[in-house]
Design brief:
Helix content: over 70%
Order of helices and strands: HHH
Number of domains: 1
Number of strands: 0
Oligomer: single chain
Strand content: under 5%
Number of helices: 3
């Protein structure tokens, strides 16, 4: 099929020849030729406009897709950062709870040891004066102090 611009050029040449020869019979053809040329030029302009619109639309779609990809990447990073902070916070809280449990265990163990030491002191006070009881009492008190200081592994 022949290009429209080529047809327009041919018709323009025919139009110029017909006007130059001024033939009354050709005059009617000249009017029609002129209208055809104008219609073809308008059609060609409209085609170019539509092609430009299509190119602009494709460009806009590509830009939108790029924007959406960047947004998704940003959201993924933000989500990972939030998850990381949440995990770190949970680990910190677990460590705090473990430390609290450890301190509570030490306190209870030290109390138990002190009770043993107190019971030994009561026995010594009631006349069971045995060197072994005195040693056990002083050992219990020293052990309780070491527990509270954190020198003993639980």
């Amino acid at each position: 099929m022949t290009d429209i611009s080529e047809l327009v050029l041919i018709m323009k040449l025919d139009l110029h020849r017909a006007v130059g020869n001024f033939n009354p019979e050709i005059k009617v053809k000249t009017v029609y030729l002129q209208r055809i040329v104008e219609a073809l030029e308008k059609a060609q302009a409209r085609i170019a406009e539509l092609e430009n619109d299509e190119v602009r639309q494709r460009l806009a779609n590509a830009e939108h897709q790029l924007y959406m990809a960047e947004l998704a990447k940003h959201n993924l990073r933000a989500s990972r950062k939030a998850q990381f902070r949440k995990r770190k916070g949970a680990e910190k809280r677990i460590a705090e709870l473990e430390a609290g449990k450890d301190a509570e265990r030490r306190e209870w163990l030290a109390r138990g040891v002190c009770l043993v030491g107190q019971e030994l002191a009561n026995r010594i006070e009631h006349g069971e004066d045995d060197a072994c009881l005195s040693f056990a009492r002083s050992t219990a008190i020293g052990f309780a102090a070491k527990i509270l200081a954190g020198e003993v592994e639980l």
